[in-house]
Structures are given as structure tokens and as C-alpha cells.
Design goal:
single chain, 324 residues, alpha+beta, OB fold (Dihydrolipoamide Acetyltransferase, E2P), 2 domains, 42% helix, Nuclease homologue, coiled coil
Length: 324
């Protein structure tokens, strides 16, 4: 359908001023057989949706949109894109989307507008390189056709999506041989990425095991130096590794009978000596800091109560508080 020159110029001025060229065409010059708001959308393939409206289901092809086959890499990308959009449209309370349909011999073709300011789903797919332009049957205004061709020109110039592969887009569709190679290349790249990720994960696991093994070995040496120590446990927060706040929390469990038989002086000696050994043995590990490798507390191995800890305020004398 040819438009008067004056109307084309007027629409062009409006489009430049507002950035809504396609919207201007839809509302001012393009005629539609059906239009409204769907209650739900379902994806058939990269070109086709089924919408639910007024108690019936309507199958629609996206006007001007031709995507690669669904089993191709870029065909899968188009389907993923549509499913994501449809999920947004189908969310409860989202009523900011409208369909515009034209009846053809093969069914309905149409456009979806959504958002504020309004965007065209069809235009977005072409602009992002998910589809090529194919002019559907029926009467379409020059301004509508040119808006899609302009979107395709941009995608092609920037080599987006399907336009990133020389020779893939043909005048009749898509080259199947190039399509197979694209899919194979992406599958190979994904395999390599998975293998690298798995290798990194294995390395992280081994490094984690090695780090904990070093801590355990260091603490075992401290225990072996003093038979009054029953066992030593520790905790640490991996999320704080590499930060100034990182420390290893160590709990030294002293044999209850040995603790009960010791004088206060002997208790202080055990605590101070083992504490120094713990700090020295943990210093130099990957994430610890010299002099502040661990926070240490002392417990009874049988009673389980706290028997000694560092004083909160230490001005003079021993830094340790013997609790019993």
C-alpha cells in the first residue's frame, strides 16, 4: 500500500522525534483483522506463537520474522528468546502487551507490542540477529516494511547472531551445511568450556583437601607435644579467605583429669605453650596471617565446658583467663 508523500514525511518526523517508527506505522497506517490482549502465550518455534484470547486459542506467525530451524544453534537461541519473553508476558499482573493480527490464506500473521514506551517483539528479534526479514502475504505499508529492513540492516552491519557467519543467511533462508557447522562449533566450544570448568572444580577440591590436610597435620603436631591434650578441633569460614578478618577457630580439648590435677601456674603454662605452637604451626599457610593465624579456646574433653580463653581486655600479666 503506497502512502501519500506528505504522510510518509509526517510519520518520519514523528518517528525521529519519538524513536517509535514501528509504533507509528502500526497505529496510524497499518490495518489489522484482530487486535487485543492475550491472557497467555505459548511458543511453538522461533517464528510461531499460540495465544489465548477471548476464550479461544489463535496460532500466529510472527510477521516479517524468519528464524533458522529449531534444531540449529541460532534456531535454539530464537526459541529461548521467545520463551523468556513469553514467560514475562504470562506473569500475573503483566498486562503491558498487545497482539495485532492479519488474516492470510495460511492463518494469522502479526506483531506483538509490549512495554512503555512500546517495543515490537518482531523488530527486536530481527534487530538482535535472531531472524531474517521475510515479507508475509497481505498488504503491508512501506513504512512497516522499511522499519524491519532497517532493523535487519543494523543487525547485519554489526554481525549480530545469524549475520556473524558469512553465507549462512541466503535469499531463500539459511544454508543447512553452514548451520550444521555452526552447531558443531558451538557444541565443541561448550564441551571445552565444561571440561575446563570440571578441571577447575577438581583443582579446587584438591586444593581444599590439601589446605585442610595442612591444618590438621599442624594441629596434630601440637597435640603430640603434650599428652595432656586429648584432641584438637577447628573451624574456618571459606568465604573470608584472603580477607583481613580471616582466622581459624581452634578448640583445644584438654584431658579433664589432667586439668583438674594441675595448678593454675601449670594450666597457664600449658595454654601459653600450646597457643604459641598453634600460631607458629599455622602461620605460613595459604590464607593465614602471621601472628593472627588462629583464635584459640580450651575445653574439657569430658565435661565439654570452656576452661580457658583469651582475656577480652589485656593490660598486663597473662593474656589468658583460667575459668576453672
Amino acid at each position: 500500500m503506497k502512502l501519500p508523500v506528505w504522510l510518509v514525511i509526517l510519520l518520519g518526523i514523528f518517528a525521529v522525534a519519538s524513536g517509535l517508527l514501528l509504533l507509528a506505522a502500526i497505529f496510524l497506517v497499518q490495518s489489522w483483522d484482530l487486535q487485543g490482549q492475550a491472557t497467555a502465550y505459548h511458543v511453538v518455534d522461533g517464528n510461531t506463537l499460540v495465544l489465548e484470547a477471548d476464550g479461544r486459542q489463535i496460532r500466529m506467525d510472527l510477521a516479517f520474522v524468519d528464524t533458522p530451524p529449531p534444531d540449529s544453534y541460532h534456531g535454539q537461541k530464537a526459541v529461548e528468546f521467545l520463551k523468556k519473553k513469553v514467560q514475562q508476558f504470562n506473569q500475573k499482573g503483566n498486562d503491558d502487551h498487545f497482539y495485532y493480527l492479519k488474516k492470510t490464506e495460511n492463518g494469522y500473521v502479526g506483531q506483538i507490542l509490549y512495554g512503555r514506551p512500546a517495543e515490537s517483539l518482531n523488530d527486536e528479534m530481527i534487530r538482535e540477529g535472531l531472524a531474517r526479514v521475510v515479507i508475509p502475504d497481505g498488504e503491508w505499508t512501506d513504512i512497516t516494511i522499511n522499519s524491519y529492513l532497517s532493523a535487519q540492516k543494523e543487525a547485519r552491519r554489526l554481525k549480530r547472531g545469524i549475520w556473524a557467519h558469512k553465507g549462512y543467511v541466503t535469499k531463500d533462508g539459511f544454508d543447512p551445511e553452514i548451520g550444521r557447522k555452526i552447531l558443531q562449533d558451538h557444541e565443541a566450544a561448550e564441551r571445552r568450556a565444561r571440561q575446563k570448568a570440571e578441571a577447575r572444580k577438581r583443582k579446587q577440591i584438591e586444593e581444599e583437601k590439601a589446605y585442610h590436610r595442612q591444618i590438621k597435620q599442624a594441629l596434630d603436631k601440637v597435640k603430640q607435644k603434650d599428652e595432656r591434650i586429648a584432641f584438637i578441633r577447628y573451624e574456618e569460614d571459606p568465604s573470608k579467605r584472603g580477607k583481613s578478618s580471616y582466622t581459624i577457630f581452634v578448640k583445644v580439648y584438654v584431658k579433664e583429669q589432667a586439668w583438674a590435677d594441675m595448678t593454675n601456674s601449670q594450666k597457664l603454662s600449658l595454654v601459653a605453650t600450646s597457643y604459641k605452637s598453634i600460631q607458629e604451626s599455622l602461620e605460613g599457610l595459604k590464607y593465614t596471617r602471621d601472628g593472627l593465624a588462629a583464635y584459640v579456646e580450651y575445653y574439657s574433653d569430658t565435661a565439654g565446658d570452656l576452661v580457658a580463653r583469651e582475656k577480652l581486655i589485656h593490660l598486663r600479666g597473662s593474656k589468658w583467663l583460667i575459668l576453672r
